[in-house]
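User: Let's play a game. I give you a shape written as C-alpha cells, and you guess the letters that built it. Ready? Here's round one.
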C-alpha cells in the first residue's frame, strides 16, 4: 500500500535522526503516528482482529489513534524494548516480553506495507561476517579478516600481514565506566602483543589495517546514493572516526561506478532499501568496504553537506520513491 494513509514510526523517544524524518513528513502533510515499543503495554493499547486476509484494528496512546489498515509504511528506527509494571516478577516479565515480541511485533510485520528497514532482514544484515561475505561476493574490496577465539591463530594472522592489524567489535559496545559513557571502537593491535589470553574468552574480529587517505560514509536509499568524505584530523579519529566527531571535516564525493553498483547489489542481496556504508579510501584511490548499518545515522552527514537524505527517505515512506 503506497500513496495513501499514515506513516508509522517506531523509534526511541529521543532520536534526532528520526526527528528529521518526522519534520519532513509533517512539511509534506503526510500523517504520522510515532511510537516507541517501550510504550507497550503500559501507554500503548492494541486491539486487532483478522478479517479476510488482513488485520484490522487500532493502536492508540493518550494522544492519538492509529487505524492499522491505514498504514502505508513503517520507519523502524531503533525502538527500545517494551516496559512492564515494576511489580511483575522476573519470570512473568520474561514471558510478557516474549509475548509482546511475537504478538505485537508479529502483528506489525503482518501489515501489508513497506518498511525501512524490514526488521528481520535488518537484524540478519547486522552480522559482520555476513556483510563481509556478501560485500566480497558482489565485487567490493574487503580487508583480510579473521574471526577467532584462539590466541595463537590471532598471532599467526598478524604474522601473515605486511602491516598492522585492527581489532573491532562485532556490534556496538557501549556502557558506563566511573559514571562516564564509554564505548569500544576499532583499535590497532601491536603484533608483539599477541598471543593474548583474553582472546580465548569470546569471538574476536581482526582485520588488516587498510591505509587511509580518508573515509567515506555512503548512504543508499531506495537506489539513490549519497556519499561524503570524512577527514578525521585526530589520531583517534584516524583509526575510527566515530571516536572523535569533533575532528571531522566533510566533503561530498562520487563513488567509483563499480563501487556504487556493488553497493546496490549488496542491498538487493540483503533485501534492504537503506544502508549506511563505511568505506576506507586508500592513498591510491581504492575504495575498501568496512561495514554497512541497516539503520545507521545519517543526520550528521546531511547537516554538514546538505545531501538530501531525509527527502529520499520520506519519498520512500510516502510511496513516491522506488
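Assistant: Ready! My guess for every position:
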Amino acid at each position: 500500500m503506497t500513496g495513501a494513509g499514515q506513516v508509522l514510526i517506531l523509534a526511541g523517544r529521543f532520536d534526532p535522526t528520526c526527528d528529521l524524518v518526522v519534520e519532513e513528513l509533517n512539511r509534506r502533510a503526510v500523517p504520522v503516528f510515532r511510537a516507541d515499543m517501550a510504550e507497550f503495554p503500559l501507554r500503548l493499547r492494541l486491539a486487532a482482529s483478522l478479517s479476510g486476509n488482513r488485520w484490522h484494528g487500532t493502536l492508540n496512546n493518550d494522544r492519538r489513534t492509529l487505524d492499522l489498515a491505514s498504514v502505508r509504511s513503517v520507519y523502524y528506527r531503533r525502538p527500545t524494548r517494551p516496559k512492564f509494571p515494576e511489580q511483575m516478577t522476573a519470570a512473568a516479565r520474561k514471558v510478557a516480553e516474549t509475548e509482546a515480541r511475537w504478538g505485537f511485533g508479529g502483528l506489525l510485520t503482518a501489515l501489508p506495507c513497506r518498511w525501512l528497514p524490514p526488521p528481520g532482514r535488518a537484524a540478519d544484515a547486522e552480522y559482520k561476517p555476513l556483510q563481509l561475505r556478501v560485500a566480497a561476493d558482489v565485487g567490493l574490496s574487503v580487508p583480510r579478516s579473521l574471526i577467532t577465539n584462539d590466541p595463537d591463530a590471532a598471532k599467526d594472522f598478524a604474522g601473515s600481514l605486511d602491516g598492522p592489524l585492527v581489532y573491532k567489535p562485532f556490534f556496538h559496545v557501549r556502557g558506563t565506566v566511573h559514571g562516564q559513557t564509554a564505548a569500544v571502537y576499532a583499535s590497532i593491535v601491536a603484533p608483539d602483543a599477541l598471543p593474548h589470553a583474553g582472546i580465548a574468552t569470546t569471538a574476536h574480529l581482526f582485520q588488516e589495517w587498510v591505509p587511509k587517505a580518508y573515509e567515506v560514509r555512503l548512504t543508499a536509499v531506495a537506489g539513490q546514493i549519497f556519499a561524503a568524505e570524512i577527514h578525521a584530523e585526530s589520531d583517534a579519529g584516524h583509526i575510527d572516526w566515530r571516536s572523535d566527531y569533533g575532528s571531522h571535516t566533510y566533503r561530498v564525493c562520487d563513488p567509483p561506478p563499480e563501487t556504487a553498483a556493488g553497493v546496490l547489489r549488496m542491498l538487493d542481496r540483503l533485501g534492504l532499501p537503506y544502508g549506511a556504508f563505511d568505506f576506507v579510501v586508500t592513498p591510491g584511490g581504492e575504495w575498501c568496504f568496512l561495514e554497512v548499518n541497516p539503520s545507521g545515522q545519517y543526520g550528521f552527514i546531511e547537516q554538514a553537506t546538505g545531501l538530501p537524505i531525509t527527502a529520499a527517505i520520506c519519498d520512500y515512506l510516502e510511496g513516491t520513491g522506488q
